[in-house]
């Protein structure tokens, strides 16, 4: 130990002394820490790894400059270890790594390659091109353990230039007959990153790779993997021409890995060419029946569910097979995958879900959250108009018994499903609104945002739901226990807004006013309190107006509506007579007397007075507004005493009209595109640069003005007042309040949890029959999963929608990431569809539509003149098939040659041959004709080409 | 394609990290941490698949195996089959077991480059290359032979470290 300490001290000293010249002392190179030493030291460092790391890095920095190769290599090994497992940046050592690449020792070379492939990338170091020559040399190395790390580096860290430079070497390696198969496989796999970096190299690589799409090729697995990547990451269209090759592999290959990749490829290709489906059904069914491999069977099921679901036999078989997965009691992996696969089915195949209903519902109680989530997703996909009420109610009940996270997932799923497309599933909004109210009572509830949005949204869009909304809002506001739960604050804010806005539907406005002004609202954040106070303002205004008008209506024995209308017209003429306007449905309510108004004004005055000096501007402003109204009303004696003719008193009429005109207009939903519709005024220059302002203001001024607080007085003055607001009030006031609002106070016995904590919101007793819930669900789903026409007792209320669709705006951003692969797929298109005229360096892509158009065009042409050319094509294809049978190795080349020939023939038979896409068109045409012809003429060996479109 | 391979212990310390898409070091650290976060909360008797869209981007998932003190994690996208990946983890673990004779966490800690050699024989740049642990073993033995023939450094370093007793 002492030895080690002295060595480290010595090295510290030497680092100072050697700072001028970098020749390491003998001591340093002799006593260099090995990788194992370093790991041990790190593991046993008393102050944790981070205390030792700086010293070790210093050592490495010094050692890495050594002229001795082995010292340098060891330093790089240590650095690589630290960079890989301790996430240290080693970009600074890139050059040293490069220095080691040409080493003659295989061990050193391999460590250097490992280090480089772990840390190099064109975004972090631009030194790799310096190693181009070395890489080329190592690629050609006869030793596979030298060339394979070089290939790995090339595929993980290459830059576009390097990829282009080395693509020829790579090509010769792929096709080399001397190199071992393992190296050729790696070279083929490296083709993928090279193609992505340098799409222009597609001309060379793609034909070469197509050669290996042979069931007997040693490179088959890798090549299929590369094509699978290409098909799934870019535009799959160009690869349709390879469908026959893939199909042959599907029939002949025995490797599960290859078959899985082939199925993945077909999953992408089938939607483009529906006729492929017919060809695939049989082999895939065969695999599903025969294969013992679960992974392959699962891939078959997935392929059938996602792209062959129109084929009845395959679908039946796949559903049969997926049952084994879903019901695999001992293997959660299979259960999860089974449910996942069922989720791929569309709504047309809900019978398949129905057959697995029991297992799906059972999975809702699975210990694995993933399985529960999938099950929930499936259940939500079974929700239709006719069963939404039952399923939601039962799920909600189930959520009560779930763990907090899943509970909220259930709530979210219900909210999402019911809120989808303007609540299209909801027939009865009274039910839905009360469901929302119930959700809030869930003890794990944390979805305040969405409930807030939906409550207000329904209020704005669905007129018929408003009375129920107000009732629910009242229940929420009046419960003092809810105020302590911060997840509910947003819901309360929505409730307060609803009770203010639609107060005319309330049975007892006074009760709501008391709820909105209860002392515990000090627990709410200021934005919510501002909403509360604004609601109080509307409420007071409403009560006063309806008091005045109500008196009139009782005098004249007329309907409240007409009177309001007549009154306002008499006064102003502009206020509409709206059946739902501010003083709408008065008939059902208790009579408002001057006493109750006075009581309410007093209440508002007492509760809001302290807030008029609150340091939250929003709260302060609203409180002052409300107080202003109260003072104004208090200032008029006539209505209190109800002296003769008070209703025609000038001030009172003025106030009533003012209130009517401020609040009678209904608020509606606003389209997200609304702003676009307003033309920008000419004087407004939105795009003008505001930097000129900086000169005027000076940068200092700006930063100063930002820090100015809006509060009118000193902050400190208010802080303690605000915190202890209820307590700070005189005790007598509190006692009085308690007497009046006993409802909001708890019994006075001391709480165990200390202070005056209210009981947890939504206390609920765990009932003993929790195990029954899944059975309940099962029962539920017994009768109601398949969509039926609903017999509704009452018509569905209209939901206000805006013409332009609120969601339009979201679609625009989707195109962003599509451009990435375009260049490559364009290049591949050129190769596979053979648009020879286009110079490959242009990198321009052929739009997909154009290709499709061309394909269609050829299809039509060929249908027309299939009679005339059929013979020659058949001869041609006979030749083709025989030649390809004879010589499998030359399959690809042969085919290309053949299509050239057919091109010539076609050129004679049809004058409208087009230059640029000649090759491709003929190829397609030919295949289509074959497809038609094969029906008439029995040519079994041609079956493969049948779907070559 | 396979996006990444990670081996970490149940405390979240990485033992082997290989990304097949370049990630800068800080990002690597973050990814390892989020993968550990996703795994550590999972019980033992649950499925081995986790959707990883939030960690590695759209359409990615990870499969893991919890063995003794280690998590073996493969991250992959939709062009791989989940069950096949699970098999591949098995191949990897089997190979390690053969190579180190009853592999344990310490073997992984002290055999950084050998671990990478094994992995690189099985997975190359995100493609599955070899699924037979016998073949992998053969290659690994050959590499060891090759590196031994002309490798003075490990001998020197070992003798020195032995004397230092660290």
UniProtKB/TrEMBL annotation, chain A:
Protein name per the record: AP-3 complex subunit delta
GO cellular component: AP-3 adaptor complex; endosome membrane; Golgi apparatus
Family: Belongs to the adaptor complexes large subunit family.
Keywords per UniProt: Golgi apparatus, Membrane, Protein transport, Repeat, Transport
Record region (Disordered): 872-927
Summary of subunit composition and partner proteins: Adaptor protein complex 3 (AP-3) is a heterotetramer.
Record field: compositional bias (Basic residues): 888-899, 915-925
Lineage: Eukaryota, Viridiplantae, Streptophyta, Embryophyta, Tracheophyta
An individual GO BP term: Golgi to vacuole transport
Location within or outside the cell: Endomembrane system; Golgi apparatus
Start and end residues of each Clathrin/coatomer adaptor adaptin-like N-terminal domain: 58-630
Free-text function comment from the UniProt entry: Part of the AP-3 complex, an adaptor-related complex which seems to be clathrin-associated. The complex is associated with the Golgi region as well as more peripheral structures. It facilitates the budding of vesicles from the Golgi membrane and may be directly involved in trafficking to the vacuole. It also function in maintaining the identity of lytic vacuoles and in regulating the transition between storage and lytic vacuoles.
Gene3D superfamilies, per the entry: Leucine-rich Repeat Variant (1.25.10.10)
Family matches, as Pfam families: Adaptin_N
From TrEMBL, chain B:
Major localization class: membrane
Subcellular location(s) per record: Endomembrane system
Signal peptide range in chain numbering: none
Keyword flag Transit peptide: no
Residue ranges constituting the AP complex mu/sigma subunit domain according to the UniProt record: 1-145
Keywords tagged on the record: Membrane, Protein transport, Transport
Gene3D superfamilies per the UniProt record, alphabetical: 3.30.450.60
Keyword Protein transport annotated: yes
Cited InterPro entries: AP_complex_ssu, AP_mu_sigma_su, Clathrin_sm-chain_CS, Longin-like_dom_sf
Family: Belongs to the adaptor complexes small subunit family.
Name of the protein this chain belongs to: AP complex subunit sigma
């Amino acid at each position: 130990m002492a030895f080690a300490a002295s060595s480290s001290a010595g090295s510290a000293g030497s680092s100072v002394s050697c700072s001028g010249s970098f020749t390491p002392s003998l001591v340093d190179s002799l006593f260099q820490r090995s990788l194992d030493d370093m790991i041990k030291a790190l593991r046993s460092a008393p102050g944790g790894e981070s205390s030792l790391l700086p010293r070790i890095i210093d050592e490495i920095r010094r050692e890495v400059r050594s002229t001795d190769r082995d010292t340098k290599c060891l330093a790089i090994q240590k650095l690589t270890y630290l960079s890989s497992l301790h996430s240290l940046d080693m970009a600074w050592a890139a050059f040293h790594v490069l220095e080691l690449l040409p080493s003659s020792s295989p061990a050193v070379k391999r460590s250097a390659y490992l280090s480089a492939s772990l840390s190099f990338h064109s975004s972090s170091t631009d030194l790799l091109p310096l190693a181009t020559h070395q890489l080329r040399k190592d690629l050609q190395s006869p030793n596979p353990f030298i060339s394979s790390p070089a290939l790995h580096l090339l595929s993980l860290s290459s830059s576009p230039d390097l990829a282009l430079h080395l693509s020829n070497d790579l090509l010769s390696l792929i096709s080399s007959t001397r190199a071992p198969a393992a190296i050729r496989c790696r070279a083929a796999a490296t083709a993928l990153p090279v193609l992505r970096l340098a799409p222009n190299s597609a001309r060379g690589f793609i034909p070469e790779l197509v050669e290996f799409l042979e069931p007997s090729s040693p490179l088959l697995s890798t090549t299929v993997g590369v094509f699978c990547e290409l098909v799934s990451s870019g535009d799959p269209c160009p690869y349709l021409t390879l469908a026959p090759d893939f199909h042959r592999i599907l029939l002949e290959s025995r490797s599960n890995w290859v078959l899985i990749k082939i199925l993945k490829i077909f999953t992408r290709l089938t939607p483009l060419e529906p006729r492929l489906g017919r060809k695939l059904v049989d082999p895939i069914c065969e695999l599903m029946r025969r294969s013992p491999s679960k992974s392959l069977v699962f891939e078959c099921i997935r392929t059938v569910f996602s792209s062959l679901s129109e084929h009845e036999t395959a679908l039946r078989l796949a559903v049969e097979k997926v049952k084994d997965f879903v019901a695999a009691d001992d293997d959660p992996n299979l259960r999860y995958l089974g449910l996942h696969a069922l989720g791929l089915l569309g709504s047309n195949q809900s019978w398949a879900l129905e057959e697995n209903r029991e297992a799906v519902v059972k999975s809702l109680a699975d210990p694995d959250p993933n399985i529960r989530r999938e099950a929930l997703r499936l259940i939500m996909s079974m929700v239709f108009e006719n069963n939404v009420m039952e399923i939601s109610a039962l799920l909600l009940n189930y959520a009560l018994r779930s763990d907090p996270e899943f509970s909220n997932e259930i709530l979210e799923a219900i909210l999402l499903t019911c809120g989808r497309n303007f609540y299209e599933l909801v027939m009865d909004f009274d039910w839905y609104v009360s469901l929302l109210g119930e959700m809030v009572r869930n003890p794990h509830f944390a979805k305040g945002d969405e409930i807030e949005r939906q409550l207000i949204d329904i209020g704005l869009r669905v007129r018929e739901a408003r009375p129920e909304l107000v009732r629910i809002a009242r229940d929420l506001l009046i419960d003092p226990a809810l105020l302590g739960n911060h997840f509910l604050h947003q819901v309360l804010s929505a409730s307060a807004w609803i009770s203010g806005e639609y107060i005319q539907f309330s049975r007892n406005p006074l009760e709501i006013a008391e709820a909105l002004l209860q002392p515990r609202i000090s627990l709410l954040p200021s934005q919510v309190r501002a909403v509360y106070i604004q609601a109080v303002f509307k409420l007071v205004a409403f009560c006063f107006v309806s008091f005045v008008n109500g008196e009139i209506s009782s005098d004249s024995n007329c309907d409240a509506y007409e009177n309001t209308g007549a009154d306002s017209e008499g006064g102003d003429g502009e206020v509409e007579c709206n059946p739902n306007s501010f003083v709408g449905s008065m008939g059902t309510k208790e009579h408002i007397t001057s006493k109750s108004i006075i009581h309410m004004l007093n209440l508002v005055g007492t509760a809001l007075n302290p807030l008029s000096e609150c340091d939250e501007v929003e709260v302060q402003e609203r409180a002052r507004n409300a107080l202003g109204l109260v003072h104004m009303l208090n200032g008029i004696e006539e209505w209190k005493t109800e002296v003769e003719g008070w209703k025609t008193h000038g001030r009172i009429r003025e106030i009533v009209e003012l209130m009517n005109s401020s609040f009678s207009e209904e608020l509606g939903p606003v389209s997200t595109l609304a702003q676009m519709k307003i033309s920008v005024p000419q004087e407004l220059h939105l795009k003008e640069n505001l930097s000129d302002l900086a000169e005027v203001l000076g940068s200092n001024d700006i930063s100063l003005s930002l820090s100015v607080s809006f509060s009118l007085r000193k902050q400190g003055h208010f802080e303690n007042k605000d915190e202890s607001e209820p307590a700070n009030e005189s005790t007598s006031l509190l006692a009085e309040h308690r007497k009046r609002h006993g409802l909001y106070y708890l019994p006075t016995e001391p709480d165990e949890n200390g202070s005056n904590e209210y009981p947890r919101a939504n206390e609920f007793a765990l009932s003993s029959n929790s195990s029954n819930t899944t059975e309940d669900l099962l029962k539920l789903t017994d009768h109601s999963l398949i969509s039926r026409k609903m017999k509704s007792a009452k018509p569905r209320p209209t939901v206000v929608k805006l013409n332009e669709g609120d969601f339009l705006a979201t679609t625009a951003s989707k195109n962003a990431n599509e451009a990435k692969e375009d260049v490559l797929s364009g290049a591949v298109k050129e190769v596979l569809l053979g648009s020879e005229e286009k110079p490959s360096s242009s990198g321009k892509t052929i739009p997909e539509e154009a290709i499709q158009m061309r394909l269609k065009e050829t299809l039509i042409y060929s249908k027309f003149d299939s009679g005339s050319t059929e013979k020659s094509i058949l001869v041609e294809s006979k030749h083709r098939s025989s030649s390809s049978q004879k010589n499998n190795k030359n399959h690809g080349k042969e085919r290309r040659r053949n299509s050239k020939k057919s091109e010539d023939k076609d050129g004679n038979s049809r004058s409208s041959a087009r230059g640029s896409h000649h090759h491709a068109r003929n190829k397609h045409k030919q295949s289509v004709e074959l497809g038609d012809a094969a029906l008439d003429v029995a040519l079994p060996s041609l079956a493969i080409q049948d779907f070559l479109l | 394609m396979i996006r990444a391979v990670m081996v970490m212990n149940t405390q979240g310390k990485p033992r082997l990290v290989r990304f097949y898409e370049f990630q800068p070091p800080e990002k690597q650290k973050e990814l390892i941490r989020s993968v550990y976060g996703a795994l550590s909360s999972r019980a033992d008797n649950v499925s081995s698949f986790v959707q990883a869209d939030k960690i590695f981007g759209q359409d990615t998932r990870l499969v893991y195996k919890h063995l003794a003190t280690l998590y073996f994690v493969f991250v992959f996208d939709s062009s791989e089959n989940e069950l096949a990946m699970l098999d591949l983890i098995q191949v990897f673990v089997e190979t390690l077991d053969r190579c180190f004779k009853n592999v344990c966490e310490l073997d992984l800690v002290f055999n950084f480059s050998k671990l990478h050699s094994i992995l690189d024989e099985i997975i190359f740049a995100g493609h599955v290359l070899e699924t037979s642990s016998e073949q992998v073993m053969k290659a690994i033995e050959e590499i060891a032979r090759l590196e031994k023939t002309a490798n003075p450094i490990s001998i020197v370093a070992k003798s020195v470290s032995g004397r230092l007793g660290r």
